[in-house]
Every structure is written in structure tokens, then in C-alpha cells.
Amino acid sequence: MKIKVITDSSCDLPVEWFKENDVEIVNLKIYINGELKNISTNELIKEWKMGEKITTSQPAPNEFEKIYEDFLKDYDGILSVHLSSKLSGTFGSAAVAARKFPQKVEVIDSLTTTSALGAMVAKAVELSKTEDLKTCAEKLRKYAQNVKTIFGVQTVENLVKGGRAHLIAGKLVTLLNVKPVLKGEDGEIKLHKIVLGFQRVLREIVNYVESHEVVDRKVYIAHVNAKEGVEYLLSKFKDKYICTVAEVDPAIALNAGEGSVLVGFLV
């Protein structure tokens, strides 16, 4: 079968990777003071610091429907792999649209986002070259049950404003220079550990990755203006893993905040 892989813009992989692997991106929408904007991560952070009202929303079902219809003219099937249904309505929109193309479109709830969604999409591309559509979907759903995300943020302010981490904030608000190590679990963001200083966050990320059997030794790293943190991780991973590094998409950066580092992989 000739299978097209589609994802959304919360999937953090290098821009050139999507072109090289023929993967279509459906963009999440970003609104600043109610106006739809096409904006870079750095521009978004600047607007956020200025106190502008920034919101995001998922693509509508009719947007997915048109994309599916167009690609099915040239492809036998579509694998549509999206961020966790517990974090966004994107999967729901895609699933509604897919009903109009039975046996032709498989929509996958990755139960994750950012770099770990990158790991899922990369695996989808790999599977699409050798498997039929149904088999690809079955295998991806199994990977989704155990996909791993581990990440550190410099501040929880963005997560709290986005309604993602009220429990974490309660534990951190009175502590000095503590940093959260967060993880993706059951499709949601949860607290993994609290440590003193961001260098220890990075060490915890390394320890977490090394405590698992990583599929194909492939580790995916995304960051928001955190080159030093990425360099540290690469120095620890270089002899053990194949690493792919990307900048975080604006919609995810809005929640993660400047200086965040996010690592994803399959097990």
C-alpha cells in the first residue's frame, strides 16, 4: 500500500525531516488577542512576556476532511497520528473526519505530544513502508500505550496559565530554586520529581532515559531556546543513542516556556 502519514504541528521534529519523509503537518491554531496568527516560537514568547492574551485551538473536522480527501487521490491509505486526546481536541476532530473514509484512514491517539509524538510519527513512517494500513495502526496503538516523555521546565508559570499543572504549582510555590521534572503518563502531564536547580533536572532526564530499553536506540529531543541543556544531553547520549533534535512548536512552547527541554522515545 502507498500510505500517507499526517500529524499536527505539536509534533516536534526538524523541519527538513518532514519534507524528506513526505509527512503532512496540520497546524494547531494560535490566537493573539483573538486574532489568528502565524507566529514563530520566539515571537510568541515575546508576546507572552508583554502580557498579550494567547490561546490555541485544534483544527476543525472539515479541515481534516479536506486534507484526507485530497491525499486519498494519490494514496491508498492515511495514518493520521496526533497529540494526546487528553491535552487537545485535535484527535477528536481527526477521528470525526475519518468516519467519511472507512478502511482508508486510521487515526492514532499518540497519548503524548512534542518530541515523543515525533518518535511516534517517525515509527509510523517506518511501518508505512512495509506494512498495510491496519497493521500499522495496530502497532502504533501498542506503542502509544508505553510511549515515554520526560521533560524539565524553568518555570511552571506557563503550564499553570495553560491549565496544565495546577497540582505541580501547589508543590513548588513556596520553594526556592526548585525545578520540576515532568513526565507524560496516560496521556497527561504529571510530576515525576522535584530537584534543586536545572542541572539536576537534566541529570534526572538522563537517568530516566537510561532506565528504559529504548526502541531502536532512538531518542528525540525538543527545546525552547535551551541549547546548553541540549548539548549536555547529547554529551551523555552520544555513545548510546541516535538523537534527533528540534525546536519546540509555538503551541507547545506556550505551555512549556522558555528554557524547557523535552525528551521522548518508544519502549
Structure write-up:
- A hairpin with a 2-residue loop joins strand 9 and strand 10.
- The chain has 267 residues and is α/β, with parallel strands linked by helices.
- It has a 6-stranded mixed beta sheet, with helices on both faces. The protein has a 4-stranded parallel beta sheet with strand order 2-1-6-7, sandwiched between helices.
- 45% of the residues are buried.
- The protein is globular, with a radius of gyration of 18 Å.
- It has helices at residues 15-20, 41-49, 61-71, 90-98, 114-128, 133-144, 157-161, 166-172, 198-210, 227-237, 250-256, and strands at 3-8, 23-26, 29-32, 35-37, 54-57, 77-82, 105-109, 148-152, 178-185, 188-196, 218-223, 242-247, 261-265.
- The longest helix has 15 residues, at 114-128.
- The mean pLDDT is 91.
- Helix 2 (41-49) crosses helix 11 and helix 9 (198-210) runs parallel beside helix 10.
- It has 2 domains: 3-143, Rossmann fold, CATH 3.40.50; 148-265, Hypothetical Protein Tm841, Chain: A,domain 3.
